[in-house]
Amino acid sequence: MSDETVLIIGSDAPCDMLVQALRHQGARPLWLQPEREAEHLPHHALAQGRLVGGFAHDGAERDFDQIQGLYLRPFGRPGARVSVAAQHRQQQWCQAWSDLGELFPGMVVNRISAMGSNASKPYQLRLLAALGFAVPPSLVSNDPAEVLAFEAEHGPLIFKSASGVRSIVRELDVEARGRLDRLRHCPTLFQRRLRGSNVRVHVVGQEVYATEIDAEVVDYRYASRQGGHAELRPTTLEPRTRERCLRASQVLGLPFVGLDLMLEEDGQTYCFEANPSPGYSFFEDATGQDISGALARLLRGAEALH
């Protein structure tokens, strides 16, 4: 067992998969989950610009200088049976670790400040367009008449949340068009519906994993809910697109990022979004791509040796 210690903050499947990958590589994963650890907040200070302090885990006190890398997914929602007081403690604990991620001197995947571009999809689309990706014609509106005019100009549309809150991407069909009056209470992002091949690209440091998705529905993540299915398989990006994906990771300050692309029938490579905390386990389970192994190497500082 090496001395490399990686700290994982979160409680879902990507965290579990990373823990297993780290163990396989001989590193020391410390997995802290808000449901178990929220009674003990981390403590820290800055001494001459250096982070000092630590945290409790398994009855022992750990120092920050023992940690090689930090993986942050502190976004879980407390279960319905958790008391309001317990929910508050968990939220405080997650916020404390999010704040510490800004100060931690080692590798952090990812700092909360870098994730901010995803809070506004229109803003993020402008950044992606500046990197050379094509982006679909888009409109954020709470005006039904404006949406209908946009549809008349661009043809069939899809719609989704304009913020970083996860939503199911849907087509603006007859049923949805009949509910456009609700927009006045919830401005929504509308985009021209593209036709082509969906590709999810995971950039992990300098490693790139591309997955092509065949699906009969608009949002392949929820294919079963929409009466369809999705087939995922590894694929290879052409060099220019691969370089753009690597550049997006660097420009956005996200060492680990999930880019949603579409290779459109018109020959363009469109980018819909850069996910700053990708749920990569879904793709690794389906394809066998070693995304968790790449993430473990990145957090250990061992990527260059791979």
Automatic annotation (TrEMBL):
All residue ranges annotated as the ATP-grasp domain in the record: 125-300
Key words, A-Z: ATP-binding, Nucleotide-binding
Keyword Nucleotide-binding: yes
Entries under PANTHER family matching the protein: BETA-CITRYLGLUTAMATE SYNTHASE B-RELATED (PTHR21621:SF0), RIBOSOMAL PROTEIN S6 MODIFICATION PROTEIN (PTHR21621)
Protein name per the record: ATP-grasp domain-containing protein
Organism field: Roseateles subflavus
